[in-house]
Amino acid sequence: MRADARRNYERIVATARDVFFTDGIDAPLDDVVKRAGVGAGTLYRHFPTRDVLIEAVYRQEILEIAELAYEIAKVSAPEDAIREWFRELIRFHIERSDLARALKAAIDEESETFQYCKEKLREAAGSLLEPAQAVGVVRADLEAVDLMRLSHGIGASAKFADEAGQQRMLSVVLEGLKP
Fold first, then answer.
1. 17, 44, 115, 120: which sits with the fewest CB atoms below 10 Å from its CB?
2. Distance CA 93, CA 157 (A)
3. Residue 20, Cβ neighbours under 10 Å: how many?
């Protein structure tokens, strides 16, 4: 991709993310075009359908939350890193539930995008889990996918709880991770 096309692509994805989170997942794509400062042809050349754009936004979101795991691992003790990333992952699930729901309605869960996202998150979770297991602060029988499922479950239920309820759920799960 040419540099200017790459910049347009990235600007459209970033703008779409902002539009989807402020105005809803069904916001007009014309709003994305206007806010991104590109023409409609540019948007549709990169993203022929809304679903393709939603996929790109979701992928970017997954990359960012995965990258956060690596950043946290660099500066935090293993147990603290898991706790901090879990909090962020739960927030992610709560805030992006509409995006995830739209994506699931648009594409098959066995699609390349879903597989890519699962793999990125599993790798990120593993980068936190393995050091925590090595120092004995979490159960040795846990797998990265277990962290993903637990965070998803808490995120799905936590959106119906207040902050105190979310913290209780998180505390219960984090205690359950200990050996």
1. 115
2. 10
3. 22
The answer to whether residues 151 and 176 touch, using CB atoms and an 8 Å cutoff, is no
Contact 111, 121 (CB under 8 A): no
The whole-number pLDDT of residue 137 equals: 95
- The per-residue pLDDT for range 11-66, each reduced to its tens digit, is 999 999 999 888 888 899 999 999 999 999 999 999 999 989 988 998 998 999 99
Residue 48 has phi, psi (to 5 degrees) of -65, -20
Say which residue the tokens 């913290």 belong to.
167
Domains of the chain listed by start with CATH number? 1-48 (1.10.10.60), 50-177 (1.10.357.10)
Contact 169, 157 (CB under 8 A): yes
Segment 71-130, tens digit of pLDDT: 999 999 999 999 999 888 888 887 777 766 776 666 666 778 888 988 999 999 999 999
The tokens for 26 are: 């069904």
Long-range contacts made by residues 132-138, C-beta under 8 angstroms, separation at least 24? 132/78, 132/79, 132/81, 132/82, 134/78, 135/78, 135/79, 136/179, 137/78, 137/79, 137/178, 137/179, 138/78, 138/79, 138/82, 138/177, 138/178, 138/179
Q: Using CA atoms, how far apart are residues 163 and 81, in angstroms rounded to an integer?
A: 20
Amino acid at 94: I
